[in-house]
Amino acid sequence: MRMGRWTGASGALWLFLGTSLQVLAPDAAAAPMANVSRTLVTFGTVPLFSNQVQPVFVTNTGDAPLNISSISLTGANVADFGLGGTCAAPITLPAGGGRCRIDVTSNARTGGNPTFREATLTIQSDASPTAATVGVSAIASGGGASFLAPSWVDFPAQAVGVSAPSQRFTFTNPFGATLTLDPPFLFGGDGTDFVVTTDCAVVLAGGSCTVTVGFVPTATGPRSTELEVDFRADDAPTTIRTHRYSVTGVGGTAGPITATSAVEYYHAAFGHYFITAIADEISKLDAGVFQGWTRTNQSFNVYTSSGAGLVPVCRFFTTAFPPTSSHFYAPRGLGCEGTLTNQDWQLEGDVFFTPLPDTNGVCPAGTVPVFRLYNNGQGGAPNHRFTTSQAIRAQMLSMGYIAEGSGIGIGMCSPQ
Fold first, then answer.
1. Residues paired with residue 369 on neighbouring β-strands, in sequence order
2. Do the Cβ atoms of 229 and 239 come closer than 8 Å?
3. Are 4 and 21 in contact (CB under 8 A)?
4. Over residues 326-348, mean pLDDT
5. Sign of the CA dihedral 218, 304, 169, 349?
6. 0.85 cut: is pTM over it?
7. How many C-alpha atoms does 75 have within 13 Å on its Cβ side?
8. Per residue in 78-133, pLDDT tens?
9. pLDDT tens digits for 148-194?
C-alpha cells in the first residue's frame, strides 16, 4: 500500500493511502476535512457512446460542515467525459461523515482505433487545501461493450470487524471469442478491508461469471479500493485489457442520511413533467433560467446518499424526438439497466436513492409508493410522471397514460 504525508505552507497535512486522498486541516478549531475515495478513475477500454459510469465519493470526515463550491472537468479531452451524481455544487456536507457521490461518465463520441482520452476532475471546497484533483482516463474504441455489472459497488455503514453481506459483480463476455481472465484483485487504498472470490477464469463467447466482494472494515470512516480485472481474448492472446472498478464502504456508524424533496415541474408547451432533487437545478428552474417550466406544487421524498436498503436512481436524457427533449428516471434493478442499452437515451448519472418495491409493488415499511406513469408517446416524445398521489395517478390514467413498474405500476418508494 502506498502511503505518504505532506504539509503545506498553511500547516495543513495531506495523507495519501493508495487510491484514497484525505485532506486534514491543522489542529485548531473545528474544521471540515474532505476525503476523496479515488485519486484516479481509469475506465480502461470503453466503446463509443457507452456512457459507462465510475463514482468518486466525497466524505466530510471533519468536525465542521464541508462546503463544496465547485466540481469541474478540465483537460485535453474534457468533452469525452461527463459529470453527474449526488454532489451538485454548491453543496454542504454535514460534519462527521456527510457524504455525496460524483459520477464520472465516459461518453466518447469519436474514434475508431483505440484512442487515449484524459481529463482532470477538480473539487473545490473550504477544506484545507481548498482543491482536490482526480485524474480521469479512458481508451475509446469502436467496439466492445461493458463487461461488469454493476460498474461499482458501495457497502453501507458496517460495524468495525464485522463482515457485511457480500456484493456481486457479473462479468459478461460480449465478444465472439473466448476470454481468459487473470484472478481479479484489489488495487490500492483500503484493500485489506475487502475480499474477492470468483469463478471467473475462462469465459466462452456470450458467457458470464461472477466476482463476489466482501467487506470487513478495520476502522471507522470511509474505506475504498479498486477491483482490477485483466483479461485477453483467445484470438488476440498478447493484448491484455485492464479495467478497474470502484469498491467502497463505510466503517462504523454512517454519516447523516436525511431525506430531501424531489420537486416536480411542468412545461405547458411540451406537455412534459420533470422532477429534480438537485438544489442548483431547483434554483435555476424557479428563477426561470430554464424557460417554460413551472412548479406543480407536487413533490416526494428521496435520499441523496446511499444507505442500507437503498438503490441509486438513474437519470437519462434524450434529444431523439425533436424538437422536444425528455428525461427518464429508473432505479437500478427496476428499469435502469434496460435503458442503458438504448442509444437514444444518454445516462446523466445516479441522481438520488430510494428503496425498491417488491415484485408485487409493495414498498418497505416507512415508505409510500411512487407511481410511474408513461405518456405513451403523446405529443411525439416520451415522458413520465412520478407521483405519490392516488388521485393524480387516476387522472393521468384517464388521460391515456400507462402505468409502469412493479405491481400496479410502482416505480420506486418514497421515505416518510
1. 413
2. no
3. no
4. 86
5. negative
6. no
7. 20
8. 888 888 888 888 888 888 888 888 989 887 765 555 588 899 999 999 998 889 99
9. 778 788 888 888 998 888 888 888 887 788 989 999 999 889 999 99
User: Which structural domains are found in the chain, ordered by start?
Assistant: 1-144 (2.60.40.10), 145-253 (2.60.40.10), 259-415 (no CATH)
What span, in angstroms and rounded, lies between the C-alpha atoms of 339 and 316? 8
For residue 250, give the nearest of 320, 190, 177, 332 by alpha carbon. 190
> Residue 10 corresponds to which cell in the numbers above?
498553511
pLDDT of residue 49: 60
DSSP string, 23-71: EE--SSS----EEES-SEEEEEEEETT--EEEEEEEEE-SSS-EEEEEE
**DSSP letter, residue 360:** T
Cβ burial of 14 (10 Å; 0-12, 13-18, 19+) is middle
Residue 322 pLDDT exceeds 80: yes
Q: How many residues does the chain have?
A: 416
What does residue 204 show for φ and ψ, rounded to 5 degrees?
-70, 160
Q: What is the dihedral of CA 236, 42, 220, 69, to 10 degrees?
A: -170
